[in-house]
Design goal:
Blueprint (H helix, E strand, L loop, with lengths): L6 H14 L6 H4 L5 E3 L9 E8 L5 H4 L3 E2 L20 E9 L6 E8 L8 H4 L14 E2 L3 E3 L8 E5 L6 E5 L4 H9 L9 H12 L7
Helix pairs in contact: 1-6, 5-6
Length: 211
Protein backbone atom coordinates (compact mmCIF):
# COMPACT_ATOMS: atom_id res chain seq x y z
CA UNK A 1 0.00 0.00 0.00
CA UNK A 2 1.03 3.64 -0.38
CA UNK A 3 2.62 5.79 2.32
CA UNK A 4 -0.74 7.43 3.02
CA UNK A 5 -4.11 6.06 4.12
CA UNK A 6 -7.54 6.55 2.67
CA UNK A 7 -10.29 6.50 5.29
CA UNK A 8 -11.25 2.98 4.22
CA UNK A 9 -7.65 1.76 4.50
CA UNK A 10 -7.28 3.34 7.93
CA UNK A 11 -10.47 1.70 9.20
CA UNK A 12 -9.35 -1.65 7.78
CA UNK A 13 -5.85 -1.37 9.27
CA UNK A 14 -7.23 -0.51 12.71
CA UNK A 15 -9.69 -3.41 12.59
CA UNK A 16 -6.93 -5.85 11.67
CA UNK A 17 -4.63 -4.48 14.36
CA UNK A 18 -7.25 -4.74 17.12
CA UNK A 19 -8.12 -8.30 16.09
CA UNK A 20 -4.46 -9.37 15.85
CA UNK A 21 -3.62 -8.08 19.33
CA UNK A 22 -6.67 -9.27 21.25
CA UNK A 23 -4.82 -12.25 22.72
CA UNK A 24 -1.77 -11.67 24.90
CA UNK A 25 0.97 -14.31 24.92
CA UNK A 26 3.99 -12.13 25.75
CA UNK A 27 4.88 -8.85 27.46
CA UNK A 28 5.66 -7.38 24.04
CA UNK A 29 2.15 -8.15 22.78
CA UNK A 30 0.64 -6.82 26.00
CA UNK A 31 2.04 -3.39 25.18
CA UNK A 32 -0.07 -3.31 22.02
CA UNK A 33 -3.26 -4.75 23.49
CA UNK A 34 -6.36 -3.15 24.98
CA UNK A 35 -7.40 -1.13 21.94
CA UNK A 36 -11.01 -0.85 20.81
CA UNK A 37 -12.76 0.85 17.91
CA UNK A 38 -14.98 3.87 18.52
CA UNK A 39 -17.32 5.62 16.11
CA UNK A 40 -18.64 9.17 16.15
CA UNK A 41 -22.04 9.13 17.85
CA UNK A 42 -23.81 10.70 14.85
CA UNK A 43 -21.45 11.02 11.87
CA UNK A 44 -20.03 8.00 10.00
CA UNK A 45 -16.44 7.97 8.79
CA UNK A 46 -14.80 9.49 11.87
CA UNK A 47 -13.86 6.33 13.76
CA UNK A 48 -10.71 5.94 15.84
CA UNK A 49 -8.90 3.53 18.16
CA UNK A 50 -8.99 4.09 21.91
CA UNK A 51 -7.62 2.53 25.07
CA UNK A 52 -7.09 3.51 28.71
CA UNK A 53 -3.92 2.70 30.66
CA UNK A 54 -2.48 3.57 34.06
CA UNK A 55 0.71 5.63 34.31
CA UNK A 56 3.11 6.50 37.11
CA UNK A 57 5.14 9.57 37.96
CA UNK A 58 8.78 9.48 36.94
CA UNK A 59 11.40 11.02 39.21
CA UNK A 60 11.49 14.74 38.24
CA UNK A 61 15.27 14.85 37.87
CA UNK A 62 15.23 12.29 35.07
CA UNK A 63 13.39 14.74 32.80
CA UNK A 64 14.46 18.13 34.15
CA UNK A 65 18.04 17.36 33.15
CA UNK A 66 17.00 17.30 29.46
CA UNK A 67 14.07 19.71 29.33
CA UNK A 68 14.55 23.46 28.95
CA UNK A 69 11.60 25.46 30.28
CA UNK A 70 10.76 28.83 28.76
CA UNK A 71 11.35 31.12 31.75
CA UNK A 72 8.97 33.73 30.36
CA UNK A 73 6.03 31.39 30.87
CA UNK A 74 4.24 30.75 34.13
CA UNK A 75 2.67 27.36 34.70
CA UNK A 76 -0.08 28.38 37.08
CA UNK A 77 -1.91 25.87 39.24
CA UNK A 78 -5.47 27.14 39.19
CA UNK A 79 -6.90 24.13 40.97
CA UNK A 80 -8.24 22.55 37.78
CA UNK A 81 -5.11 20.61 36.86
CA UNK A 82 -3.42 17.66 38.54
CA UNK A 83 0.04 18.08 40.04
CA UNK A 84 3.10 15.84 40.15
CA UNK A 85 3.22 16.51 43.89
CA UNK A 86 0.40 13.98 44.19
CA UNK A 87 1.57 10.36 44.63
CA UNK A 88 -1.61 9.00 43.03
CA UNK A 89 -1.55 6.94 39.86
CA UNK A 90 -2.55 8.55 36.60
CA UNK A 91 -5.12 7.61 33.97
CA UNK A 92 -4.13 8.02 30.33
CA UNK A 93 -6.64 7.98 27.47
CA UNK A 94 -4.87 7.12 24.23
CA UNK A 95 -6.26 7.56 20.72
CA UNK A 96 -5.13 6.63 17.22
CA UNK A 97 -6.86 8.85 14.66
CA UNK A 98 -6.45 9.53 10.96
CA UNK A 99 -4.69 12.83 10.27
CA UNK A 100 -6.82 14.65 7.71
CA UNK A 101 -3.79 16.64 6.51
CA UNK A 102 -1.08 13.98 6.32
CA UNK A 103 -3.35 10.94 5.77
CA UNK A 104 -1.47 8.83 8.30
CA UNK A 105 -2.29 7.63 11.83
CA UNK A 106 -1.72 10.18 14.57
CA UNK A 107 -1.37 9.57 18.31
CA UNK A 108 -3.48 11.71 20.65
CA UNK A 109 -3.68 11.41 24.42
CA UNK A 110 -4.90 12.98 27.65
CA UNK A 111 -3.65 12.27 31.18
CA UNK A 112 -5.71 12.76 34.33
CA UNK A 113 -4.98 12.66 38.05
CA UNK A 114 -7.12 10.73 40.52
CA UNK A 115 -9.35 13.79 40.95
CA UNK A 116 -10.17 13.73 37.24
CA UNK A 117 -8.20 16.90 36.53
CA UNK A 118 -5.98 16.97 33.41
CA UNK A 119 -2.22 17.38 33.70
CA UNK A 120 -0.38 20.46 32.46
CA UNK A 121 2.35 19.89 29.90
CA UNK A 122 5.19 20.36 32.38
CA UNK A 123 3.72 17.54 34.47
CA UNK A 124 3.01 15.30 31.49
CA UNK A 125 6.74 15.37 30.78
CA UNK A 126 7.31 13.90 34.25
CA UNK A 127 5.14 10.82 33.70
CA UNK A 128 6.09 7.35 32.52
CA UNK A 129 4.31 7.85 29.17
CA UNK A 130 7.33 9.26 27.36
CA UNK A 131 10.72 7.68 26.83
CA UNK A 132 13.28 9.30 29.12
CA UNK A 133 15.45 10.59 26.27
CA UNK A 134 12.62 12.03 24.16
CA UNK A 135 12.88 15.40 25.94
CA UNK A 136 16.61 15.79 25.33
CA UNK A 137 17.38 19.13 23.69
CA UNK A 138 13.75 20.26 23.63
CA UNK A 139 12.11 23.45 24.85
CA UNK A 140 8.70 23.40 26.57
CA UNK A 141 6.15 26.19 26.41
CA UNK A 142 2.60 26.16 27.76
CA UNK A 143 1.16 24.37 24.75
CA UNK A 144 4.04 22.61 22.98
CA UNK A 145 7.37 20.83 23.23
CA UNK A 146 9.73 21.74 20.39
CA UNK A 147 13.22 20.88 19.21
CA UNK A 148 15.30 23.72 17.71
CA UNK A 149 16.13 21.67 14.60
CA UNK A 150 12.54 20.67 13.81
CA UNK A 151 10.07 22.62 11.66
CA UNK A 152 7.08 21.42 13.69
CA UNK A 153 6.64 20.92 17.45
CA UNK A 154 7.30 17.42 18.73
CA UNK A 155 4.27 17.57 21.01
CA UNK A 156 1.36 20.00 20.76
CA UNK A 157 -2.08 20.62 22.20
CA UNK A 158 -5.11 20.46 19.93
CA UNK A 159 -8.66 19.21 19.62
CA UNK A 160 -9.37 15.53 19.14
CA UNK A 161 -10.50 15.33 15.47
CA UNK A 162 -13.64 13.35 16.32
CA UNK A 163 -14.47 14.18 19.93
CA UNK A 164 -13.53 17.86 19.78
CA UNK A 165 -11.99 17.66 23.26
CA UNK A 166 -8.55 19.07 24.22
CA UNK A 167 -5.75 16.53 23.78
CA UNK A 168 -2.01 16.36 23.27
CA UNK A 169 -0.64 14.86 20.08
CA UNK A 170 2.61 14.04 18.30
CA UNK A 171 2.97 15.87 15.00
CA UNK A 172 2.63 13.32 12.15
CA UNK A 173 4.63 15.18 9.48
CA UNK A 174 7.49 12.63 9.31
CA UNK A 175 5.36 9.55 9.92
CA UNK A 176 5.05 8.28 6.35
CA UNK A 177 8.78 8.32 5.59
CA UNK A 178 9.67 6.69 8.92
CA UNK A 179 7.18 3.87 8.41
CA UNK A 180 8.33 3.30 4.84
CA UNK A 181 11.91 2.84 6.06
CA UNK A 182 10.75 0.06 8.37
CA UNK A 183 8.63 -1.61 5.70
CA UNK A 184 11.62 -1.79 3.34
CA UNK A 185 12.96 -4.45 5.68
CA UNK A 186 9.93 -6.66 5.01
CA UNK A 187 8.82 -6.06 1.44
CA UNK A 188 6.72 -9.22 1.37
CA UNK A 189 4.23 -7.84 3.90
CA UNK A 190 4.56 -4.13 3.23
CA UNK A 191 1.28 -3.96 1.32
CA UNK A 192 -0.80 -5.31 4.19
CA UNK A 193 -2.65 -2.65 6.24
CA UNK A 194 -1.78 -4.56 9.42
CA UNK A 195 1.95 -4.43 8.61
CA UNK A 196 1.72 -0.68 8.05
CA UNK A 197 -0.04 -0.17 11.38
CA UNK A 198 2.45 -2.32 13.28
CA UNK A 199 5.34 -0.42 11.69
CA UNK A 200 3.66 2.82 12.78
CA UNK A 201 3.52 1.60 16.37
CA UNK A 202 7.22 0.76 16.12
CA UNK A 203 7.92 4.37 15.16
CA UNK A 204 5.65 5.68 17.91
CA UNK A 205 7.33 3.52 20.55
CA UNK A 206 10.62 5.39 20.04
CA UNK A 207 8.96 8.30 21.87
CA UNK A 208 6.10 6.69 23.80
CA UNK A 209 6.44 3.82 26.25
CA UNK A 210 3.61 1.57 25.03
CA UNK A 211 3.14 -0.03 28.43
Amino acid sequence: MTAMFTRQQFDEACGQFIHAHQSISSSCEARLSGWSWKEHHTLPGFGYMHRIITLNWRHPASVDAFLEIDDSLDFVDDGTTASRDSPDSLTCHQYVVLSATFRVPAFYFSIYGSSGSPLQLIDIMQTSLLREDVCEGTVASTFAVSHPTMNFPLLSQGEHPTLGTPCWYFHPCETASAVQEILKESEGNSRRPLSWMEAWFTVLSTAVDMQ
